[in-house]
Specification:
Strand content: 25-35%
Shape: globular
Number of helices: 4
Helix content: 25-40%
Structural class: alpha+beta
Order of helices and strands: HEEEEHEEHHE
Distance between the termini: 38 Å
Length: 141
């Protein structure tokens, strides 16, 4: 899928999720979806993307796969430049988070859980030379 098409589908998904407070778009490939809003590292404008997520004891865990493309997704680069973001969960629950990339040990521990949740990540990792980042989103309030 071309980048422009993927970004358009992502925007439609995010809009449907937001408008319906997650009644539409809350699940994809048998997994829960959240909306992540980051601040553009160049533009300063808000950018919202729907992402599959898992839960740790203290954080939400998201995967910067971008379908196995050679570069990290913009949302990941935005978070690495400025780790503050906003998450919206189904039901309209919205809160601020602080993001950090998983350590190599954390990633190694989480990767089997991630691929159990969605086997497509194995394929995505095989398509790229970069190690797909895993990100922890910890609520700040």
């Amino acid at each position: 899928m071309r980048d422009r098409t993927a970004k358009c589908l992502s925007a439609v998904h995010a809009a449907a999720f937001h408008v319906t407070r997650g009644r539409l778009g809350r699940r994809l490939v048998r997994n829960d979806i959240l909306l992540l809003t980051t601040r553009g590292r160049k533009s300063g404008r808000p950018h919202t993307v729907p992402l599959l997520y898992l839960r740790s004891a203290t954080a939400l865990v998201v995967i910067a796969s971008w379908g196995g493309r050679p570069a990290n997704p913009d949302w990941y680069e935005n978070l690495m430049a400025s780790p503050r973001a906003t998450v919206e969960l189904p039901g309209g629950q919205t809160f601020d988070v602080s993001a950090r990339a998983a350590t190599p040990e954390e990633r190694a521990s989480w990767w089997p859980r991630i691929t159990d949740a969605y086997a497509g990540y194995v394929d995505y990792q095989s398509r790229t030379d970069r190690e797909i980042p895993v990100v922890f989103l910890t609520p700040t309030t």
